[in-house]
Amino acid sequence: MKPPMRHLYLHVPFCPTICPYCDFHVVRRGPGLVERYLERLAAEAANLYADHPGPLATLYLGGGTPSYLRDHELARLFDSLPWTFEAGAEITLEANPGTLSPARLELVRSLGVNRISIGAQSFQDRVLDRLGRAHKAAAALRTVEHSLATGFRVSLDLILGLPGQDVKADLETAAALGVGHVSAYTLQIEPGTPFALAGMTPDPDREAAAFAAARTALGRAGLTRYEVSNFARPGEESRHNLAYWRMAEWGGLGPAASAHFYTPAGAGVAERRTNPPLPRWAVGESPARETIDPLEHAKESLMMGLRVREGVDLDALSARSGLPGLREVLERAARELVPTELLVAGGPRLQPTAEGLDRLHAAVLSLWEALESAYSEEDS
Ligand code: SF4
After folding, report:
1. How far is the CA of 185 from the centre of ligand 1 (A)?
2. Could you tell me the distance, in angstroms and rounded to a whole number, from the CA of residue 362 to the centre of ligand 1?
3. Distance between Cα 202 and ligand 1 center (Å)
4. Fewer CB near the terminus (10 Å): N or C of the chain?
């Protein structure tokens, strides 16, 4: 029997303002829009529950800005989720600074949320202004302080390597706050966003220096880099995101949410389901379904699994993909990569080195080439 779906992502697409670098599926509130969203969400949750009754180990409310929903809307949203939770389940709410007062934090806690992911991005007002963020640094500091005082596990999002940013100051502030988890990103200039249209381009040297500074400052505060962009104190890692990197099964609710399920033998290895954007999702359009074949699954598992220091369990991947001799193919390719010092090979897991996390692309591409030359012809 298939194990139960233990992980669920729920997309809340509403934001008070749309940041100029954002390429997530986000909208502003409009008359009746949240009402229609909540109605459709309840129906979608009931359908998913019928096939995947859990219980859940993790629930992640992302967006958008889930904390931008009003109190009664948040309560109604949680009311419409039929799942029960495993003991010690992780329930995360993404929040923007300024959207969570102490009273709201109490409400959110009473709904079952135990982890808050705060989109601080920077603690410098001029940088926040340039990013087009709706909040000031003081609001971010207050939200972190109140969240910790209310007893939540807290994760901070930071953007590093921005023009005019004092990276060291931002990292030192983050390190001193006592949070258990920091996600540190460089600004992605996505095509079509206002930043891209204004001709902004990334600066890889400045970004590399910013990440080196992050390793030092956050490391001193006991937060170690367990994934390319994520730092945590021991036990504070994001269990929900680990499910993605480990290629577990997860469900998705809400517009543009995606899901990943394994399929019965003979029907490919896995299926990715992606919900349509809000206007089509709200009228009940079904998700797009894409079958992931064994080779693609192996490639995706390497790309995701090598983002994490724990790496990829080779026997588990071989069993999931069903590709004959997969472990040997990967071990051979990894041995050739050993001189590059990007990977640790030879044990039951293929793991990135600290250097490998910085230059993952090169290692993953070599492994992909080995997979393609071993299995592409067989498929044709
Ligand atoms: S707050 Fe986050 S999700 Fe909302 S527009 Fe800004 S970057 Fe996008």
Report:
1. 14
2. 31
3. 19
4. N
Residue 178 resides in a domain: yes
pLDDT of the chain along its 380 residues, tens only? 566 899 999 999 999 888 888 889 999 998 899 999 999 999 999 999 999 999 999 999 999 999 999 999 999 999 999 999 999 999 999 999 988 999 999 999 999 999 999 999 999 999 999 888 888 999 999 999 999 999 999 999 999 988 788 999 999 999 999 999 999 998 877 777 777 777 777 777 777 888 899 999 999 999 999 999 999 999 999 999 999 999 999 999 999 999 999 987 666 789 999 999 999 999 999 999 999 999 999 999 999 999 999 999 999 999 999 999 999 999 999 988 878 888 988 889 999 998 888 888 888 999 999 999 999 864 44
Is residue 113 a part of any domain in this protein?
Answer: yes
Nearest atom (ligand 1) to Cα of 63? 3
DSSP state of 166: -
Residues 55 and 4 sit within 8 Å (Cβ to Cβ): yes
For residue 302, the domain's CATH number is: 1.10.10.920
- Check if the beta carbon of residue 28 is closer than 8 Å to that of residue 14: yes
**DSSP helix, strand, coil percent of the chain (3-state; round to 5):** 45, 20, 35
Supply the residue whose CA is at minimum distance from atom 8 of ligand 1: 22
The total of structural domains in the chain comes to 2
Q: What is the CATH number of the domain that holds 114?
A: 3.20.20.70
Q: How many angstroms is it from 64 CA to the middle of ligand 1?
A: 6
Q: 117 CB under 6 A from ligand 1?
A: no
**25 and 117 share a domain?**
yes
Tokens coding 319: 């069993």
Q: Whose CA is nearest to atom 5 of ligand 1?
A: 18
Q: Point out the ligand 1 atom lying closest to the alpha carbon of residue 21.
A: 7
Residue 23 phi/psi, 5° resolution? -125, 20
Residue 87 lies in a domain: yes
Q: Which of 17, 21, 25, 26 to mutate to test the pocket of ligand 1 (most atoms within 8 A of CB)?
A: 26
How far apart, in whole angstroms, are the C-alpha atoms of residue 131 and residue 134? 9
Candidate of 19, 61, 190 to mutate for ligand 1, largest count of ligand atoms within 8 Å of Cβ: 19
340 in a domain, yes or no?
A: yes
Q: Decide whether any atom of ligand 1 lies within 6 Å of the 63 Cβ.
A: yes
The structure's pTM equals 0.94
Domain of residue 324 covers 293-380
Candidates 81, 87, 90, 9; CA nearest to 43 is 81
Rg (CA), the chain: 21
Q: Which two tokens stand for residue 171?
A: 């990292």
